[in-house]
Amino acid sequence: MHAAGYADVIAIRAKASEDRAWVEETLARLWGGRTVAVHGDAFEAAALPAFIAGEREGLLTYRLDPPIAEIVTLNALQPRHGIGTALVEALAADLAGRGIREICVTTTNDNLDALRFYQRRGFRLAALRPGAVAAARRLKPGIPAKGNFGIPRSDELELVRDVAPGSAPP
After folding, report:
1. What is the pLDDT of residues 103-119, one digit of tens each?
2. Most Cβ neighbours (<10 Å): which of 71, 79, 80, 138?
3. Domains of the chain
4. Which residues pair with 125 in a beta bridge?
5. In 10 A of CB 114, how many CB atoms?
């Protein structure tokens, strides 16, 4: 599968059984383990469906809760090369025929890069969960108190986007 607009650059494919060790290692390195804590729940991200970009240059894990799909993790190993965008668009294309209407993602208040990334790709702010990171820390104690740019990591922000083609800006 190729993501729209990136067909000649980045091939996207569904996670296969031979990717298991790489997915687990990548999540451990970038997320501090295979478990991700968000909105009061813990998810075993390595066990979720996933898309992989190129020769393991990026990883997107997601879960389905019809009519919504939730991005649980998204990492481009080479930022600002279109990998994250290609993964998000591949997910949207895959979901379009499955009755899923929206894609949501949750990030923390300190993750300004993620907020910029998602909003530039058609996501809009849908919810603020003040103090939610404290609950996440109870599930995953290793979540740092300070985040990006030295900002205290305390709140979750949820963003949503329609799955429909053309819902993301060009």
Report:
1. 999 999 999 999 999 99
2. 71
3. 12-162 (3.40.630.30)
4. 159
5. 19
